[in-house]
Each structure stands twice: as structure tokens, then as C-alpha cells.
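Re: that chain you flagged

S.,

Sorry for the slow reply, it's been a week of failed gels. I finally had a moment to sit down with the sequence you sent. For the record, here it is as I used it:
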Amino acid sequence: MKIVVLDGYTANPGDLSWEGLELLGEVTVYDRTKPNETVARAAEAEIVITNKVVIGREEMAQLPHLIYIGVLATGYNVVDIAAARDRGIIVTNVPAYSTESVAQMVFAHLLTVTNHTERYAIENRQGRWSSNPDFCYYANSITELADKTFGIVGLGNIGQRVAQIAQAFGMKVKAFTSKPAEALPEGIQKADLKELFQTSDIISLHCPLTPDTHHLIKTETIAWMNPEAILINTGRGPLVDDAALAEALKAGRLKAYCADVMTEEPPKADNPLLQVDNAYITPHIAWATKEARQRLLQIATANVSAFLKGTPQNVIG
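Prediction finished late last night. Pasting the C-alpha cells below so you have them in one place:
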């Protein structure tokens, strides 16, 4: 069985092993694949593994041996599922591997804003504390999280884990979710979107990107928020209108924006959010702890193994 991994570098830049997959067939791993290289590289493969390389109807039509596509992620919009179904190609993904990793990043971002640890560390390498007349100094006010209201948009696996951590900090938690109020975990109050935005000190986005949630954060909804609110996005970049949010941050209508995702990735250098001091952007790495990437490879390998045994798991569509 010939197996081709089209873009393996982000999942495994060399600190993990493809050994499990190699036990299942003849494996070729490419770090990255450009769109015009996809067909040539996958031409002889029965199994193709992709993270962000698009495999659409056109590509599938040129891959006569292809019987299985494994998406090396939870999101699977890079594969034309209808085209795969038409051709009898099984498509799988890797759900829920990064819950702990993403939830941890939410609070890494939040604490960056409330405690300023990175700023203090940089200043003190430059001698700020050593030359200070007092035993301590305050470059910025430090904010306590206890008793603040933490609003969560979308209460799936990650949203629920974020809620648990917020409660451990002593915060009150509200959620905008399709789940009925009686089905919510203890201590989480169901709220409509406007109420959540109006009453939350911190707002964290964990909803899927759909036509209804595209630009959920825009001029109108930002106006509902407290100017001292902190907005966190580890979901999808296009949940946010970049220009409207950047304008609000510069005008002081929002305290801070913390994001691990952007509308376009990598973002263009002139993206307005990259020019704002109170926007804190990380390069789509919330999912990428070593532990999470290890789970990702293990589950992706188990998906291939199950398929080869005739009992496919995590099948899309």
C-alpha cells in the first residue's frame, strides 16, 4: 500500500516519528506541497494524508489509485467531500486531539494581557528593575481574574474545557450555545449573544466557521462589548472582521484582542491587526504542543489501520 503525506512538517518537524504509519505501507513524506505538485506527488498513492493541501474534485479525477484521504487535522474543508463520496473515496479526520493544547493557549494569551509577564521580562533584561528606586514597579496595572465574567461562544470539547479552567480561576462563566440550558455543565449560564457580549469581561470564540458566524465580530457586535473587555480567538480567523476590530482596538473600544488564527494564513504584512499594540497574535500554534501532535499522528495512523482492516473510523460524510 503506497501512502503519501503531502505536508507533514507542521505536524512533525522532526521531533516525532512516522514509524507507526510506516508499518502499514510504503510511506513517502513531503514537508510541504504546492498546489501544482499535488497530483504528481500523489499519482501512485492509494492513501494520501493531508493537513492543508487541497484535494478537490479536479485532483481526485487525476488520481486513479486513490481510495483513502486522511486529513491530519479536525477541520476537513481542504477536501471536496462530495467529490470523494462520488468516487467512493473514504475521508477521515482527527477529532478532539488538541483540546488541552488549545485551552492552554487561551489562558496563555489571557495572562499575557492581565499580567504582562513577557513585557516585564524584556524590560528587566534591559535593566529596568536593576535601576528602580523601589523593590518593585508597575509598568501596567495587573488584573485579577477571580470574579470576572468569562463568556464562551460555542461549547464543544474545547469550549467546555476552557469553561472548566475559567471556573478554576474563580470566574463566572456564560455560554452562547445551541445546547439547552438544562444540559449545560454545572456553573455555566446560558446567554444569548448580545447579553454575553454586553456582560463579559473576557470573550473567547470556540464556534465553527459557518455563513452565520463569518464576521461574527464586526462593528455592530463590538459596540455591544465593554471597552475593557478582552477578546480571544483560537477558533477561526474569519470569525472576525480584521479591519473593524483593528479600528476598535486603536480607538479604545476594546482592551485587547488575542488570536492564534487569522483570516489569511500566513497573514499579509499589512494586515491591520498586526499594526496594533493591543492585538496579541500567535502563528496558529495553539494545537501544536508536542503532546497534541503526538496524539494527532497516533490517531491518524489508527485511522489508516482501521481502514485497512475494513472498519474505518472517524469517517467524514
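What I noticed first: The first helix runs from residue 19 to 22.

Talk soon,
D.
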